[in-house]
């Protein structure tokens, strides 16, 4: 049992509303976390539960309206045991020159998927769930997901990597879908 599993037994989880584009809060740059507290761990537990329910594989705090440098992630497949990961104040300290292209989607840009080119490997320094400093080297889906979620912390959506024309078309489509859902 992980620390996160143990913590989840101690307090009820809450599903948080996920902000969707073109909400201007998603363009906000998130502030660093000063101290890892029980309140912050509760937020991360709630974010993880929200991400699982969505369903998704990564979620940045800004996506639930909290402008702090926090990411939760779980890349385990449906038939695998959950493997939650927590990244507080993540910082890329190295990125490869080699690039990889992955099809990305985003809980804040529902039902839109497209290819994004990013560094194939990154080394990331961060604080974990326990507040201890860690560093990992990531490649494949983990590297892509980390960079995608870290973009959120800097007010960048994956569609911001596209041409202005393509991005504007996607945003119009999202606004139209939101209006239809509201009526």
| Helix count, DSSP H or I runs of 4 or more residues | 4
The amount of beta strand, in percent, is: 25-35%
Rg calc? 16 Å
Terminal CA distance: 45 Å
| CATH structural class | Alpha Beta
Please report the total strand number as a whole number: 7
> Which class best fits the helix and strand makeup?
alpha+beta
- H/E series: HHEEEEEEEHH
What's the shape? Answer: globular
Report what the structure shows:
This protein is of the alpha+beta class and 183 residues long. It has a single domain (3-182), classed as Peptide Deformylase. 31% of the residues lie in helices and 28% in strands. The chain has helices at 3-10, 38-53, 140-153, 164-182; strands spanning 58-60, 70-73, 85-95, 99-106, 109-119, 121-127, 133-139. A 5-stranded antiparallel sheet has the order 1-2-3-6-7. It has a two-stranded antiparallel ribbon with strand order 4-5. It is globular, with a radius of gyration of 16 Å. Mean pLDDT is 93; it is low at 1-9.
Question: Would you kindly provide a brief summary of this structure?
Answer:
The protein is an alpha+beta fold and 183 residues long. The protein is 31% helix and 28% strand.
Fold topology:
Elements: H1 3-10, H2 38-53, E1 58-60, E2 70-73, E3 85-95, E4 99-106, E5 109-119, E6 121-127, E7 133-139, H3 140-153, H4 164-182
Antiparallel strand pairs: 1-2, 2-3, 3-6, 4-5, 6-7
